[in-house]
Amino acid sequence: MRRVPLEAWSGFAMLAVCVAIGVFVVSSPAGLRVPTAAWVLLFTMTIAAVLTTALVEDSRPSLQRATYAAAVVLGWCVLLTAPEAEPLAILLVVIAAFGSSVLPLRAVLGVALVNTAVIGAAWSDRMDDPSSWAFVVGMYLLIHVSAVLSVTAILQEQRMRRELAEAHVELQAAGVLLEESARTAERLRISRDLHDLIGHQLTVLTLELEAARHREGDRAREHVEQAGRVARDLLADVRSTVEALRTDPREGLAASLVRIGADAPGLDVAVEVADGVRPDEEQAEALVRAVKEIVTNTLRHADARELWIDLVLDRGTIRLTAADDGRGAADPRPGNGLTGMRERFEALGGGAAFDGDDGFRVSAWTPVR
Question: How far apart are CA 279 and CA 265, in angstroms?
Fold first, then answer.
């Protein structure tokens, strides 16, 4: 079951309060300036516009702004057609607060100011004392501003936490790639040392054996003994080098991939690397970058609790599969990150595919080299 964020529950609770106020107004419709059915339709459209604004994906900002503008205007109409229902002013406060996730702060404060003016206009005929009217309107202005600033602060904190989590994943991936580069450089250094050391010792061994072949008796034996010592030193050097290079690529890759998703806030990342997976350097880099992109996208868009990443060997193909329990996407449109992942695997002779029907799934593959 997908996790519902705490801020979503808070928004639903505020909408529930607004609906309860609407029910209260309908139960005593004496102060309505339009027919009850028309007011109920107007109120329902307002709640629907607010819900649509909250549920529309962030990738469609124009639709969000349009539905929010409709919610604001409909909210004014709801209040102006029922001016005697004072609790309806809370509806305008809620609408203004919702705008913090859609519009810049300056624009939302402008909405709060206009909402307050609408409240003042709706109640101007009901209050004979100008000072009381000014006090009430001023209080609602402060309530609007405090609600907008509070929601904006919460959203900014969430954004900073998300950016920090993404930076953490980027840093872990960069560390893994740096370590892999260091290991590659170390292997190159050892190979050069092997060439220089073993080449020199083999040359000495060949010369000693050649000298022994042209001599007899004790003099030949001396060259044979020297050749034996060189051979033993050569064997020791080879064993030492092999010991230094003896690592399990699968275990190293698994540990590296686990590190990328480790400590991701609010996301449990499980990584499994099957036996027999032996990518080369280019493939390992592509896999590391793919996992980094998958974890980052999950943190940024999926609203998921768990992410599963499997790396298997499938009929001569190294296949990476990732799936989360988030909200998915009915029509996934790969951005720069996913497009770059696909291009990277295609350059290795493989490819990548994406599916958002049930959570979000990524499949990438490359042939074994």
Answer: 29
